From TrEMBL, chains A, B:
The keyword Mitochondrion does not apply. GO terms for biological process: tRNA modification. It is found in: Cytoplasm. InterPro entries: Rossmann-like_a/b/a_fold, tRNA(Met)_cyd_acetate_ligase. It comes from Lysinibacillus sphaericus (Bacillus sphaericus). It is an enzyme of class 6 (ligase). The gene is tmcAL. This is tRNA(Met) cytidine acetate ligase. The lineage of its organism: Bacteria, Bacillati, Bacillota, Bacilli, Bacillales.
């Protein structure tokens, strides 16, 4: 059986994801699709709107065959490490190919860009350094160095200003650096841009657009058209039970309290909290009454919004620099759910997997899994605050979803 | 001017406190009374029902002339250190005497008990050790050793089974160990026992009884008879503004979240968290939906309720073993409020104080004060959760209350 891998967050699973999934299977001529999905906290440094189990059900209901978890250590990491974790796992579970969405949908420019940068790494790095030293931000300096380099060695390259292209580039970089035989494929994205608002009458919208529409209208009906039926119903069930979707705004009282109970110096123990920002975080926490007003106070040219949110994620879950340093590579494949076809694939190919497949974590003593279970507990406790009797399934007791 | 010192929590200030205050001034023939009052977290390991400023107002309105703060480091400590901190401060502010409530109201048995224990310290300690080794709890072993010793050297001694007598004993011990000239006095307690429920028609009730009545009836009117008018009105104002009194039950969602976001090993960093209990704390936090059900799960013969609450206080405020170890003695006298007479006393005697008098902490860089300000911020943030617009005064900006 041939498997295609995809890297997903499904926050939430929408029609664009369904399209990407279908195309990935087609382009890769795959029998099944395996999604490596972020668990409770995501790459932009925020809690997933619904838990990993609900998102797994959405995925399986819409045609994904196997869902495995991208560990917290990678799901909340900058693009390079996020990609490394995801591609390692798709390789370990023996996918033949992986497919990612990009703006123009052709793979050669990605490979060209990878070749360009890897063959001129020293020059590239010194161009970045040069630019950073003049006071330009790191992302802008990257862009400048890339522009310089690609003008010097002309070829069709990708536009690294597009968020999806950046991730795609890092996927390829990860596959190359891992020496994996997994084949990179790309699928042209359709319609909605990354952060675009919902278009009247359109059946495709971005996940960001969907979350924004939900936050502003407070009504699931407003996004029904851009979601598969299954997604809509799972989100509806969630709201009935837990009253709210997870978000920093919803978690703000807990985040604020967590910040305030720390001393400035203790905040610097957490991953990605750069020395110096801890005072700004504390000062803003003490004087803000919402997450958005807090962010207004701490945002600066020096840090991207995403970077700030990742710091906050680590503070919130108590994930330290020391912990981060202790992890080198994924150590297990955690199964979140499977279809009948997915189960058949596991039966046939399990013996070839390069990492142990874990279905039940209760009896496993793995440090990276322990971080995921801990993050899920922090997440559940935040959701349950105010939801009274409703309790989320205990992550460490959950068996994989069968569909 | 002659000053008598009293050690108080005023949680809340009630008629029994008014009686004690009046008697203290009379017995000591004092011109003014100085109260050293716990700030935001108290000796039984719980948050004060209203903040230090409101409790200072109650005290001044009912005849206290000067209120100074007992720092967090001492206000949340076991009796020995609690007493040491309080008596150090009353000595530093040059009180001639201090007066505490006791069951029989005569000072000689306290002095006898102190002499007995200090002169037979080695024997006393080995009797305690002997008993603890047979599996008896520490408090019970203390009691056993004391019984043995007092039978061997008969004299009128105090009953150390009474909570007020234990504190009194430690006050005297502290005064003696500090070599302070401050004179110990005791005043017989009237009516209500330490934990007694409110009696119909009685004008005196214990603070514990008052808080219990408030918690069960939810109505301030139920305790109006046992409070001075000023206390009643300050409590009424508080409830109008903040909707609830502080308590572990009210802070439970935040305490639960705080416990859950820690790993077991990280919990042992906090003061008084004995190795081994961290697992029980985490397990109980994950499976309880109220503070009382949580406490039911962690209580055991090994730890008193108070001891458990003190651990939780330190976890909640983030106060570590390392911090605790770094403090040897009070370093400043923090003024919370004063009457006109109190102000006159300060004018005359300030030059003789053995520690600096601090009126505004904003410009002070003292590590022990920093702990108090931090504890007040954690407390305020907990009160403000759910109270929406209402914000408590910022502790570090507050000038002393003038009355």
């Amino acid at each position: 059986m041939k498997a295609v891998g995809i890297v997903v967050e499904y926050n939430p699973f929408h029609n664009g994801h369904a399209y990407h999934l279908e195309q990935a299977k087609k382009v890769a001529q795959a029998d099944i699709a395996i999604a490596v999905m972020s668990g409770t906290f995501l790459q932009r440094g925020e809690p997933a709107m619904v838990d990993k189990w609900t998102r797994t059900k959405m995925a399986l209901a819409s045609g994904v065959d196997i869902v495995i978890e991208l560990p917290y250590v990678y799901s909340t990491a900058p693009a390079t490490d996020f990609a490394k974790g995801a591609i390692s796992l798709l390789s370990a579970i023996r996918c033949d190919a992986f497919a990612f969405g990009s703006e123009d949908g052709s793979i050669q420019p990605f490979l060209n860009t990878y070749q360009l940068i890897s063959q001129h790494r020293t020059e590239y790095n010194s161009l970045i350094k040069e630019s950073v030293q003049t006071g330009v931000s790191y992302p802008k300096s990257l862009h400048y160095a890339y522009e310089q380099l690609s003008q010097k060695f002309p070829a069709p390259y990708i536009d690294l200003a597009q968020p999806n292209n950046i991730l795609g580039f890092h996927y390829i970089e990860a596959a190359m650096m891992l020496g994996s035989k997994i084949k990179p494929l790309t699928i042209p994205r359709i319609a909605a841009g990354y952060h675009d608002a919902l278009q009247e009458g359109a059946s495709i919208a971005s996940a960001t657009g969907i979350r924004k529409a939900l936050a502003s209208t407070g009504s699931l009906q407003s996004v029904q058209e851009v979601l598969p039926d299954a997604s809509f119903h799972y989100l509806q069930d969630w709201i009935l039970q837990y009253k709210k979707f997870a978000s920093w705004e919803a978690f703000w009282p807990l985040l604020q309290f967590t910040l305030i109970r720390h001393s400035a110096s203790e905040l610097t123990r957490y991953a990605e909290v750069t020395e110096g920002i801890e005072h700004a975080l504390l000062k803003a926490a003490k004087t803000s009454n919402s997450f958005s007003s807090f962010m207004e106070k701490i945002k600066s040219k020096r840090y991207t919004w995403t970077r700030l949110q990742r710091m906050l994620t680590h503070i919130y879950t108590g994930f330290t620099k020391e912990q981060l340093k202790s992890f080198q590579a994924p150590s297990t494949i955690r199964l979140l759910g499977m279809s009948t076809k997915g189960q058949a694939y596991l039966g046939v190919h399990k013996k070839d997997f390069t990492l142990p497949l874990i279905s039940r974590v209760a009896s496993t003593n793995d440090a990276m899994l322990a971080v995921d279970i801990h993050a899920a507990e922090v997440y559940s406790s935040s959701i349950e605050l105010g939801a009274q009797q409703a309790t989320l399934p205990k992550d460490y007791q959950m068996p994989p979803i069968r569909f």
